[in-house]
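Dock FE3-S4 cluster; give full complex structure.
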Amino acid sequence: MTVTKTNASRLRHLQGKRVFMEDFGCQMNKNDAELVVGRLGRAGWSRAERPEEADVVLYYTCAVREHAEERIYGRLGHLKRLKKERPDLVIGVMGCMAQNQKERIFERAPHVDLVVGTSRFEEIADFLADIEYQDRVVALDQGEVAYERDIHARPVRHQAYVTVMRGCDKFCTFCIVPFTQGRERSRTPEEIEKEVRALVDDGVQQVTLLGQRVNTYGLDLNRGETLATLLQRLESIPGLGRLQFITSHPTHIDETLMRVIRDHPVHSRYLHLPVQSGSDRMLRIMNRGHDVESYRRTMDMVRRIVPDMSLATDWIVGFPGETDEDFQASVRLQKDVGFQTSFVFKYSDRSGTKASRSMPDDVPQAVKEERNQILLAQQRAISEELHRGRVGTEHTILVEGRSKRDASKWFGRTSQNWIVVFSAERDFTGQFVRVRVTDATALTLFAELV
Ligand code: SAH
Ligand code: SF4
Ligand code: F3S
Protein backbone atom coordinates (compact mmCIF):
# COMPACT_ATOMS: atom_id res chain seq x y z
CA MET A 1 0.00 0.00 0.00
CA THR A 2 1.02 3.59 -0.34
CA VAL A 3 1.26 5.95 2.53
CA THR A 4 0.59 9.62 2.31
CA LYS A 5 2.48 12.07 4.46
CA THR A 6 0.90 13.08 7.69
CA ASN A 7 -0.78 16.41 7.37
CA ALA A 8 -2.31 18.67 9.95
CA SER A 9 -5.92 18.18 8.93
CA ARG A 10 -5.69 14.39 9.09
CA LEU A 11 -4.14 14.54 12.51
CA ARG A 12 -6.84 16.93 13.69
CA HIS A 13 -9.36 14.39 12.55
CA LEU A 14 -7.76 11.87 14.91
CA GLN A 15 -7.56 14.13 17.93
CA GLY A 16 -8.91 13.19 21.31
CA LYS A 17 -8.90 9.46 20.63
CA ARG A 18 -7.72 6.84 23.06
CA VAL A 19 -5.23 4.05 22.46
CA PHE A 20 -4.71 0.89 24.47
CA MET A 21 -1.23 -0.55 23.94
CA GLU A 22 0.15 -3.82 25.27
CA ASP A 23 3.64 -5.06 24.45
CA PHE A 24 5.19 -8.53 24.47
CA GLY A 25 8.70 -9.86 23.91
CA CYS A 26 12.00 -8.10 24.33
CA GLN A 27 13.03 -4.63 25.53
CA MET A 28 13.26 -3.36 21.98
CA ASN A 29 9.57 -4.12 21.58
CA LYS A 30 8.76 -2.36 24.80
CA ASN A 31 10.66 0.65 23.56
CA ASP A 32 9.08 0.61 20.09
CA ALA A 33 5.65 0.35 21.71
CA GLU A 34 6.45 3.42 23.81
CA LEU A 35 7.62 5.27 20.72
CA VAL A 36 4.27 4.52 19.09
CA VAL A 37 2.33 5.76 22.12
CA GLY A 38 4.56 8.85 22.19
CA ARG A 39 3.94 9.44 18.48
CA LEU A 40 0.18 9.25 19.00
CA GLY A 41 0.50 11.47 22.06
CA ARG A 42 1.94 14.18 19.85
CA ALA A 43 -1.11 13.76 17.62
CA GLY A 44 -3.36 14.48 20.58
CA TRP A 45 -4.14 10.94 21.69
CA SER A 46 -4.35 9.74 25.25
CA ARG A 47 -3.72 6.31 26.69
CA ALA A 48 -6.51 3.94 27.71
CA GLU A 49 -5.99 1.57 30.61
CA ARG A 50 -8.22 -1.17 29.17
CA PRO A 51 -9.30 -2.22 25.65
CA GLU A 52 -12.91 -1.50 26.64
CA GLU A 53 -12.08 2.19 27.04
CA ALA A 54 -10.10 2.54 23.82
CA ASP A 55 -10.82 3.66 20.25
CA VAL A 56 -7.77 1.76 19.06
CA VAL A 57 -6.25 -1.41 20.55
CA LEU A 58 -2.64 -2.13 19.57
CA TYR A 59 -0.51 -5.14 20.41
CA TYR A 60 3.24 -4.89 20.00
CA THR A 61 4.02 -8.54 19.42
CA CYS A 62 6.80 -11.12 19.64
CA ALA A 63 7.33 -14.18 17.44
CA VAL A 64 10.34 -15.78 19.05
CA ARG A 65 8.45 -18.82 20.33
CA GLU A 66 5.11 -20.31 19.33
CA HIS A 67 3.76 -19.60 22.79
CA ALA A 68 4.34 -15.86 22.24
CA GLU A 69 2.19 -15.87 19.10
CA GLU A 70 -0.52 -18.01 20.70
CA ARG A 71 -0.84 -15.49 23.51
CA ILE A 72 -1.56 -12.76 20.97
CA TYR A 73 -4.17 -14.87 19.21
CA GLY A 74 -5.70 -15.40 22.66
CA ARG A 75 -5.84 -11.64 23.21
CA LEU A 76 -7.34 -11.11 19.76
CA GLY A 77 -9.94 -13.80 20.43
CA HIS A 78 -11.10 -11.89 23.51
CA LEU A 79 -11.58 -8.75 21.43
CA LYS A 80 -14.05 -10.38 19.03
CA ARG A 81 -17.06 -9.56 21.18
CA LEU A 82 -15.93 -5.99 21.72
CA LYS A 83 -15.50 -5.49 18.00
CA LYS A 84 -19.02 -6.83 17.40
CA GLU A 85 -20.45 -4.35 19.88
CA ARG A 86 -18.35 -1.48 18.52
CA PRO A 87 -17.52 -2.08 14.85
CA ASP A 88 -15.58 1.19 14.74
CA LEU A 89 -13.03 -0.15 17.22
CA VAL A 90 -9.68 -0.40 15.43
CA ILE A 91 -7.49 -3.41 16.24
CA GLY A 92 -3.84 -3.45 15.23
CA VAL A 93 -1.07 -6.04 15.43
CA MET A 94 2.42 -4.55 15.28
CA GLY A 95 5.99 -5.83 15.54
CA CYS A 96 7.56 -9.25 15.05
CA MET A 97 4.47 -11.43 14.86
CA ALA A 98 2.93 -9.04 12.36
CA GLN A 99 6.10 -9.29 10.30
CA ASN A 100 6.17 -13.05 10.64
CA GLN A 101 2.50 -13.94 10.10
CA LYS A 102 1.72 -11.20 7.59
CA GLU A 103 -1.77 -11.48 6.06
CA ARG A 104 -2.16 -14.89 7.71
CA ILE A 105 -3.26 -13.00 10.82
CA PHE A 106 -6.54 -12.16 9.07
CA GLU A 107 -7.31 -15.86 8.59
CA ARG A 108 -7.42 -16.54 12.31
CA ALA A 109 -8.47 -13.06 13.38
CA PRO A 110 -10.55 -11.45 10.61
CA HIS A 111 -11.55 -8.60 12.93
CA VAL A 112 -7.99 -7.20 12.86
CA ASP A 113 -7.70 -3.95 10.87
CA LEU A 114 -4.03 -3.15 10.97
CA VAL A 115 -0.89 -5.26 10.50
CA VAL A 116 2.30 -3.23 10.87
CA GLY A 117 5.68 -4.97 10.86
CA THR A 118 8.86 -4.00 12.66
CA SER A 119 10.10 -1.05 10.62
CA ARG A 120 7.15 1.27 9.97
CA PHE A 121 5.83 2.11 13.43
CA GLU A 122 6.67 5.80 13.06
CA GLU A 123 3.87 6.06 10.50
CA ILE A 124 1.20 4.84 12.89
CA ALA A 125 -0.81 8.07 12.78
CA ASP A 126 -0.97 7.84 8.98
CA PHE A 127 -2.11 4.23 9.11
CA LEU A 128 -4.83 5.07 11.59
CA ALA A 129 -5.99 7.87 9.33
CA ASP A 130 -5.98 5.50 6.34
CA ILE A 131 -8.12 2.99 8.17
CA GLU A 132 -10.93 5.56 8.24
CA TYR A 133 -11.56 5.02 4.55
CA GLN A 134 -9.76 1.77 3.86
CA ASP A 135 -10.73 -1.71 4.96
CA ARG A 136 -7.35 -2.88 6.14
CA VAL A 137 -3.82 -1.56 6.31
CA VAL A 138 -0.78 -3.81 5.95
CA ALA A 139 2.75 -2.35 6.17
CA LEU A 140 5.54 -4.90 6.23
CA ASP A 141 8.58 -3.68 4.34
CA GLN A 142 11.80 -3.59 6.36
CA GLY A 143 13.81 -0.52 5.57
CA GLU A 144 15.41 2.32 7.43
CA VAL A 145 13.73 3.07 10.70
CA ALA A 146 13.71 6.80 11.13
CA TYR A 147 11.81 8.22 14.04
CA GLU A 148 11.52 11.31 16.08
CA ARG A 149 11.41 10.55 19.75
CA ASP A 150 9.29 12.47 22.18
CA ILE A 151 11.92 12.64 24.93
CA HIS A 152 9.40 13.41 27.67
CA ALA A 153 7.07 10.52 26.82
CA ARG A 154 8.47 7.61 28.77
CA PRO A 155 6.96 5.37 31.40
CA VAL A 156 9.84 5.64 33.88
CA ARG A 157 11.47 9.01 34.61
CA HIS A 158 14.95 7.83 35.60
CA GLN A 159 15.62 5.17 33.03
CA ALA A 160 15.35 4.90 29.25
CA TYR A 161 16.06 2.50 26.42
CA VAL A 162 17.80 3.64 23.28
CA THR A 163 17.79 1.38 20.24
CA VAL A 164 21.21 1.64 18.59
CA MET A 165 20.79 -1.00 15.93
CA ARG A 166 18.09 -3.19 14.49
CA GLY A 167 18.11 -6.55 12.80
CA CYS A 168 20.38 -9.56 12.93
CA ASP A 169 22.62 -11.09 10.28
CA LYS A 170 23.59 -14.13 12.30
CA PHE A 171 20.83 -16.56 11.31
CA CYS A 172 21.12 -19.03 14.14
CA THR A 173 19.15 -21.94 12.72
CA PHE A 174 16.40 -21.84 15.38
CA CYS A 175 15.78 -18.11 15.36
CA ILE A 176 13.04 -16.06 13.71
CA VAL A 177 14.55 -12.66 14.61
CA PRO A 178 16.60 -12.20 11.40
CA PHE A 179 13.36 -12.71 9.48
CA THR A 180 11.23 -10.38 11.59
CA GLN A 181 13.79 -7.63 12.15
CA GLY A 182 15.66 -7.82 8.85
CA ARG A 183 19.33 -7.06 8.24
CA GLU A 184 21.55 -5.28 10.75
CA ARG A 185 21.23 -1.51 10.55
CA SER A 186 23.10 0.71 12.99
CA ARG A 187 22.08 4.24 13.80
CA THR A 188 24.86 6.79 13.58
CA PRO A 189 26.74 7.58 16.79
CA GLU A 190 25.86 11.27 16.38
CA GLU A 191 22.16 10.51 16.34
CA ILE A 192 22.46 8.20 19.35
CA GLU A 193 24.49 10.72 21.32
CA LYS A 194 21.92 13.41 20.64
CA GLU A 195 19.14 11.19 21.92
CA VAL A 196 21.06 10.13 25.02
CA ARG A 197 21.99 13.74 25.87
CA ALA A 198 18.38 14.85 25.52
CA LEU A 199 17.22 12.02 27.77
CA VAL A 200 19.85 12.78 30.41
CA ASP A 201 18.94 16.48 30.30
CA ASP A 202 15.38 15.39 31.00
CA GLY A 203 16.40 13.49 34.15
CA VAL A 204 17.35 10.02 32.92
CA GLN A 205 20.01 8.39 35.11
CA GLN A 206 20.35 5.04 33.41
CA VAL A 207 20.43 4.36 29.69
CA THR A 208 20.21 0.88 28.20
CA LEU A 209 21.41 0.56 24.62
CA LEU A 210 19.44 -1.99 22.63
CA GLY A 211 20.21 -4.23 19.71
CA GLN A 212 19.47 -7.82 18.76
CA ARG A 213 23.21 -8.36 18.45
CA VAL A 214 24.29 -5.12 20.03
CA ASN A 215 27.98 -6.02 20.09
CA THR A 216 28.15 -5.89 16.30
CA TYR A 217 26.99 -2.29 16.52
CA GLY A 218 28.61 -0.04 13.92
CA LEU A 219 30.14 -2.68 11.66
CA ASP A 220 27.62 -1.94 8.90
CA LEU A 221 28.45 1.78 9.02
CA ASN A 222 31.94 1.06 7.64
CA ARG A 223 33.60 3.93 9.45
CA GLY A 224 35.44 2.18 12.25
CA GLU A 225 32.61 2.51 14.76
CA THR A 226 32.10 -0.32 17.25
CA LEU A 227 30.17 -0.81 20.45
CA ALA A 228 33.40 0.12 22.27
CA THR A 229 33.73 3.46 20.46
CA LEU A 230 30.05 4.16 21.05
CA LEU A 231 30.39 3.50 24.79
CA GLN A 232 33.40 5.83 24.91
CA ARG A 233 31.47 8.53 23.12
CA LEU A 234 28.61 8.33 25.62
CA GLU A 235 30.44 7.61 28.90
CA SER A 236 31.28 11.19 29.85
CA ILE A 237 27.90 12.78 29.20
CA PRO A 238 27.37 14.91 32.31
CA GLY A 239 24.55 13.58 34.48
CA LEU A 240 24.52 10.08 33.04
CA GLY A 241 24.78 7.68 35.98
CA ARG A 242 24.77 4.26 34.38
CA LEU A 243 25.14 2.90 30.86
CA GLN A 244 24.38 -0.68 29.84
CA PHE A 245 23.64 -2.70 26.70
CA ILE A 246 21.68 -5.82 25.69
CA THR A 247 21.92 -8.34 24.09
CA SER A 248 25.28 -9.60 22.91
CA HIS A 249 26.40 -12.54 20.85
CA PRO A 250 29.52 -14.44 21.98
CA THR A 251 31.60 -13.84 18.86
CA HIS A 252 32.19 -10.10 19.13
CA ILE A 253 33.28 -9.67 22.74
CA ASP A 254 36.87 -8.47 22.71
CA GLU A 255 39.46 -7.08 25.11
CA THR A 256 39.03 -3.55 23.81
CA LEU A 257 35.36 -3.56 24.77
CA MET A 258 36.14 -4.95 28.20
CA ARG A 259 38.84 -2.35 28.84
CA VAL A 260 36.46 0.45 27.93
CA ILE A 261 33.99 -0.94 30.46
CA ARG A 262 36.67 -1.36 33.12
CA ASP A 263 38.00 2.16 32.70
CA HIS A 264 34.83 4.14 33.42
CA PRO A 265 32.49 3.62 36.38
CA VAL A 266 29.42 4.62 34.37
CA HIS A 267 29.50 1.26 32.57
CA SER A 268 27.29 -1.40 34.04
CA ARG A 269 29.02 -4.57 35.25
CA TYR A 270 26.45 -6.81 33.66
CA LEU A 271 27.03 -8.93 30.60
CA HIS A 272 24.22 -10.96 29.08
CA LEU A 273 25.90 -13.37 26.70
CA PRO A 274 23.56 -16.13 25.49
CA VAL A 275 25.34 -19.45 24.97
CA GLN A 276 22.28 -21.67 24.19
CA SER A 277 24.09 -24.99 24.74
CA GLY A 278 27.18 -26.57 26.28
CA SER A 279 27.49 -29.11 23.47
CA ASP A 280 29.70 -28.37 20.47
CA ARG A 281 27.55 -30.61 18.31
CA MET A 282 24.46 -28.56 19.20
CA LEU A 283 26.26 -25.23 18.78
CA ARG A 284 27.36 -26.30 15.32
CA ILE A 285 23.92 -27.23 14.07
CA MET A 286 22.53 -24.11 15.70
CA ASN A 287 25.01 -22.13 13.54
CA ARG A 288 26.14 -20.16 16.57
CA GLY A 289 29.61 -19.49 15.17
CA HIS A 290 31.44 -20.41 18.38
CA ASP A 291 32.21 -23.54 20.36
CA VAL A 292 32.24 -24.26 24.08
CA GLU A 293 35.98 -23.73 24.38
CA SER A 294 35.91 -20.28 22.77
CA TYR A 295 32.95 -19.30 24.95
CA ARG A 296 34.83 -20.34 28.07
CA ARG A 297 37.87 -18.40 26.89
CA THR A 298 35.75 -15.32 26.31
CA MET A 299 34.29 -15.58 29.80
CA ASP A 300 37.75 -15.98 31.33
CA MET A 301 38.96 -12.90 29.45
CA VAL A 302 35.92 -10.90 30.60
CA ARG A 303 36.55 -11.83 34.23
CA ARG A 304 40.27 -11.18 34.00
CA ILE A 305 39.71 -7.63 32.75
CA VAL A 306 36.48 -6.82 34.64
CA PRO A 307 36.54 -9.03 37.76
CA ASP A 308 33.25 -7.70 39.15
CA MET A 309 31.30 -8.44 35.95
CA SER A 310 28.09 -10.35 36.56
CA LEU A 311 27.26 -12.89 33.89
CA ALA A 312 23.88 -13.87 32.48
CA THR A 313 23.05 -16.27 29.68
CA ASP A 314 20.28 -17.97 27.68
CA TRP A 315 19.81 -21.71 27.14
CA ILE A 316 17.68 -23.63 24.70
CA VAL A 317 16.70 -27.12 25.85
CA GLY A 318 15.32 -29.76 23.52
CA PHE A 319 16.84 -28.46 20.30
CA PRO A 320 16.37 -31.09 17.54
CA GLY A 321 18.52 -34.12 18.21
CA GLU A 322 19.62 -33.00 21.69
CA THR A 323 20.66 -36.17 23.52
CA ASP A 324 21.01 -36.58 27.23
CA GLU A 325 24.75 -36.33 26.71
CA ASP A 326 24.40 -33.00 24.90
CA PHE A 327 22.18 -31.76 27.69
CA GLN A 328 24.61 -32.87 30.40
CA ALA A 329 27.25 -30.73 28.67
CA SER A 330 24.96 -27.71 29.20
CA VAL A 331 24.53 -28.64 32.86
CA ARG A 332 28.32 -28.78 33.22
CA LEU A 333 28.95 -25.48 31.46
CA GLN A 334 26.32 -23.73 33.57
CA LYS A 335 28.03 -24.96 36.72
CA ASP A 336 31.58 -24.21 35.56
CA VAL A 337 30.98 -20.64 34.42
CA GLY A 338 28.92 -19.76 37.49
CA PHE A 339 26.38 -17.48 35.84
CA GLN A 340 24.38 -15.21 38.09
CA THR A 341 21.32 -15.57 35.86
CA SER A 342 20.08 -18.10 33.31
CA PHE A 343 17.10 -17.65 31.01
CA VAL A 344 16.02 -21.12 29.90
CA PHE A 345 13.79 -21.74 26.88
CA LYS A 346 12.22 -24.90 25.55
CA TYR A 347 12.94 -25.20 21.85
CA SER A 348 10.05 -23.98 19.75
CA ASP A 349 9.92 -24.80 16.03
CA ARG A 350 9.63 -21.56 14.05
CA SER A 351 8.36 -22.04 10.55
CA GLY A 352 10.72 -20.54 7.98
CA THR A 353 13.92 -21.08 9.96
CA LYS A 354 16.58 -23.51 8.82
CA ALA A 355 16.03 -25.75 11.85
CA SER A 356 12.34 -25.95 11.03
CA ARG A 357 13.04 -26.86 7.41
CA SER A 358 15.70 -29.48 7.99
CA MET A 359 15.51 -30.79 11.56
CA PRO A 360 12.53 -32.57 13.10
CA ASP A 361 11.41 -31.20 16.47
CA ASP A 362 12.03 -34.62 18.00
CA VAL A 363 12.64 -34.07 21.72
CA PRO A 364 9.41 -34.92 23.58
CA GLN A 365 7.72 -32.07 25.42
CA ALA A 366 8.12 -33.89 28.75
CA VAL A 367 11.87 -34.17 28.21
CA LYS A 368 12.12 -30.48 27.32
CA GLU A 369 10.22 -29.67 30.49
CA GLU A 370 12.44 -31.88 32.61
CA ARG A 371 15.63 -30.35 31.19
CA ASN A 372 14.19 -26.90 31.67
CA GLN A 373 13.59 -27.65 35.36
CA ILE A 374 17.06 -29.11 35.84
CA LEU A 375 18.80 -26.00 34.50
CA LEU A 376 16.51 -23.70 36.47
CA ALA A 377 17.13 -25.62 39.69
CA GLN A 378 20.89 -25.66 39.27
CA GLN A 379 20.84 -21.95 38.44
CA ARG A 380 18.85 -21.21 41.58
CA ALA A 381 21.48 -23.00 43.68
CA ILE A 382 24.37 -21.20 41.97
CA SER A 383 22.67 -17.79 42.21
CA GLU A 384 21.93 -18.30 45.87
CA GLU A 385 25.47 -19.34 46.68
CA LEU A 386 26.93 -16.35 44.83
CA HIS A 387 24.47 -13.97 46.48
CA ARG A 388 25.11 -15.39 49.97
CA GLY A 389 28.80 -14.66 49.52
CA ARG A 390 27.86 -10.98 49.10
CA VAL A 391 26.41 -10.53 52.58
CA GLY A 392 28.40 -7.75 54.24
CA THR A 393 29.51 -6.06 51.00
CA GLU A 394 28.56 -2.49 50.03
CA HIS A 395 27.06 -1.35 46.75
CA THR A 396 25.74 1.71 45.01
CA ILE A 397 22.23 1.10 43.75
CA LEU A 398 19.87 3.02 41.54
CA VAL A 399 16.53 3.06 43.35
CA GLU A 400 13.63 1.98 41.14
CA GLY A 401 10.66 2.30 43.49
CA ARG A 402 8.62 0.33 46.00
CA SER A 403 9.38 -3.36 46.41
CA LYS A 404 6.92 -5.49 44.46
CA ARG A 405 6.65 -8.05 47.28
CA ASP A 406 6.59 -5.76 50.28
CA ALA A 407 5.20 -2.26 49.75
CA SER A 408 6.79 -1.02 52.98
CA LYS A 409 10.23 -1.53 51.40
CA TRP A 410 12.08 -0.15 48.37
CA PHE A 411 14.16 -1.77 45.68
CA GLY A 412 16.94 -0.87 43.29
CA ARG A 413 19.70 -2.43 41.23
CA THR A 414 23.46 -2.54 41.51
CA SER A 415 25.73 -1.97 38.55
CA GLN A 416 25.72 -5.78 38.16
CA ASN A 417 21.93 -5.74 37.73
CA TRP A 418 21.42 -7.43 41.11
CA ILE A 419 18.10 -6.60 42.74
CA VAL A 420 18.43 -5.07 46.21
CA VAL A 421 15.53 -4.63 48.64
CA PHE A 422 15.97 -2.19 51.54
CA SER A 423 14.10 -0.03 54.05
CA ALA A 424 14.15 3.75 53.98
CA GLU A 425 12.25 6.58 55.62
CA ARG A 426 11.88 8.48 52.38
CA ASP A 427 11.50 7.88 48.67
CA PHE A 428 14.84 7.73 46.82
CA THR A 429 13.36 6.62 43.49
CA GLY A 430 15.60 7.64 40.62
CA GLN A 431 18.58 8.33 42.87
CA PHE A 432 21.78 6.45 43.64
CA VAL A 433 22.24 5.35 47.26
CA ARG A 434 24.86 3.26 49.12
CA VAL A 435 23.70 0.06 50.80
CA ARG A 436 25.25 -2.79 52.79
CA VAL A 437 23.97 -6.31 52.13
CA THR A 438 22.52 -8.05 55.20
CA ASP A 439 20.86 -11.14 53.73
CA ALA A 440 20.36 -12.88 50.39
CA THR A 441 18.23 -15.31 48.42
CA ALA A 442 18.83 -16.59 44.88
CA LEU A 443 17.15 -13.57 43.27
CA THR A 444 17.34 -10.82 45.87
CA LEU A 445 19.86 -9.10 48.09
CA PHE A 446 18.47 -7.51 51.27
CA ALA A 447 20.33 -4.47 52.49
CA GLU A 448 20.40 -1.43 54.76
CA LEU A 449 21.27 2.14 53.82
CA VAL A 450 24.77 3.26 54.84
N1 SAH B 1 19.35 -11.41 20.00
C1 SAH B 1 19.43 -12.20 21.11
C2 SAH B 1 18.38 -13.27 21.21
C3 SAH B 1 17.01 -12.85 20.94
S1 SAH B 1 15.94 -14.15 21.22
C4 SAH B 1 20.73 -12.92 21.08
O1 SAH B 1 21.20 -13.37 20.07
O2 SAH B 1 21.25 -13.09 22.15
C5 SAH B 1 16.21 -14.42 22.95
C6 SAH B 1 16.45 -15.84 23.30
O3 SAH B 1 15.35 -16.62 22.91
C7 SAH B 1 17.62 -16.49 22.60
O4 SAH B 1 18.84 -16.20 23.19
C8 SAH B 1 17.28 -17.96 22.68
O5 SAH B 1 17.76 -18.51 23.87
C9 SAH B 1 15.76 -17.94 22.72
N2 SAH B 1 15.20 -18.42 21.46
C10 SAH B 1 15.31 -17.88 20.24
N3 SAH B 1 14.67 -18.62 19.32
C11 SAH B 1 14.13 -19.67 19.99
C12 SAH B 1 13.36 -20.80 19.61
N4 SAH B 1 13.04 -21.02 18.33
N5 SAH B 1 12.97 -21.68 20.57
C13 SAH B 1 13.31 -21.46 21.86
N6 SAH B 1 14.04 -20.42 22.27
C14 SAH B 1 14.46 -19.53 21.35
FE1 SF4 C 1 18.63 -14.85 16.84
FE2 SF4 C 1 21.13 -15.69 16.74
FE3 SF4 C 1 20.50 -13.27 15.84
FE4 SF4 C 1 20.43 -13.76 18.44
S1 SF4 C 1 22.27 -13.83 17.13
S2 SF4 C 1 18.88 -12.68 17.25
S3 SF4 C 1 19.74 -15.88 18.52
S4 SF4 C 1 19.84 -15.21 14.96
FE1 F3S D 1 10.45 -11.27 20.09
FE2 F3S D 1 10.96 -9.79 18.01
FE3 F3S D 1 12.10 -9.24 20.30
S1 F3S D 1 10.69 -11.96 18.00
S2 F3S D 1 12.30 -11.25 21.23
S3 F3S D 1 9.97 -9.15 19.88
S4 F3S D 1 12.99 -9.04 18.28
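Observed: The chain is about 35% helix and 20% strand.
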